[in-house]
């Protein structure tokens, strides 16, 4: 067994959603140990949680600033930091860790503005740091299979993409929101100028870009704010025109009754169609023109090697969210190890979502809001 890597975490304290999933995913790979952590919860609860996570008391911090400076000064620096706070803190926290020469894994959306994202990219490059943005759903084996099938020309040139991502979790919360009691996702100060469009819309945008390689040329978007407590969008419709002529329609919602986490993407090519449904991510539907539709099964021997290598258990034993995260960490840890070994690392070669994908997401949701504010006008995306 090669030496274990070490990592730290910002956010993800008791009761938080995604930090624990990151930790479980990293444990699944058994390649890295958590050694330091910062959260803003009260000191007593923080000390208790830190001890439960097996951390040395002097590596449990009350702020990311304190953690970045203390960890950056150590000879045994962490191999990376995971940033799993509400969106507002991604940019300042990531920047500070990069400035200490520490690689970053950051939750999406990367930050509030594309300029902040480009700044992070510059700082990462300046300090020779790696940067992963955890767009989870590209970690699923069947997302990797879809990507490889498209790269192999299975469905031909792409004509249209339909993406939808409805949820209904916000409905009950909306009715109880008061000023001062607003979930951070519905609070512009913590979420940014987009809610559903940034939280969910960027998952569609990222999955489509990652799997198809298509780049958005321009978009037209309408945002709804349903419910009395809402100040940010909770229902989004966008028309997309890709470079090269393909078109798309994206819909996402936090108030669609009966839907849990129903990300579904259909990619229509000249020769066939690929359909990915996140809640049934162990399968992929592939329809080739003139032939009966086929259901590919994760773990089966006929998958492409590029996807098959990520499957952990045989077909019929479902994998899910944690495994998707773990696959992203498999890719990222490989890049970290190569960098430590002094090899030249081109992050695009490893398979994890890079900082450029994070910037693309931020650009996407800001242009959606710009378009909405201009009466759903067509808005061109900025060149990189
Ligand atoms: N990739 C995915 O599929 C996915 C899924 C869920 C959430 N997310 C993203 O993860 C991030 C966190 O979401 P969540 O649902 O876990 O939120 P959460 O509210 O459940 O947890 C946030 C945690 O961050 C801590 N925190 C808040 N401010 C902090 C600060 N300044 N410094 C340190 N810690 C701080 C909180 O105390 C809490 O422990 C968001 O950016 C969200 O968009 C991504």
Describe the structure.
The protein is α/β, with parallel strands linked by helices. The protein folds into two domains: 5-129, NAD(P)-binding Rossmann-like Domain (Rossmann fold, 3-Layer(aba) Sandwich), CATH 3.40.50.720; 140-314 and 361-380, Dihydrodipicolinate Reductase, domain 2 (2-Layer Sandwich), CATH 3.30.360. It is 35% helix and 22% strand. It contains 13 helices and 15 strands. It has helices spanning 18-29, 43-52, 64-72, 90-99, 114-126, 141-151, 170-176, 188-191, 196-199, 201-212, 305-308, 321-340, 355-373, and strands at 5-11, 32-38, 60-61, 80-84, 103-106, 131-133, 158-166, 216-224, 235-242, 247-253, 264-269, 272-277, 283-288, 294-297, 379-380. The strands form two sheets. The chain has a nine-stranded mixed beta sheet with strand order 14-13-12-11-7-10-9-8-15. A six-stranded parallel beta sheet has the order 3-2-1-4-5-6, sandwiched between helices. β12 and β13 form a beta hairpin. α4 packs parallel to α5 (114-126). The longest helix has 20 residues, at 321-340. The radius of gyration is 21 Å and the shape is globular. Nicotinamide-adenine-dinucleotide binds at residues 10-13, 16-19, 38-41, 64, 84-87, 89, 107-108, 134, 136, 184, 199.
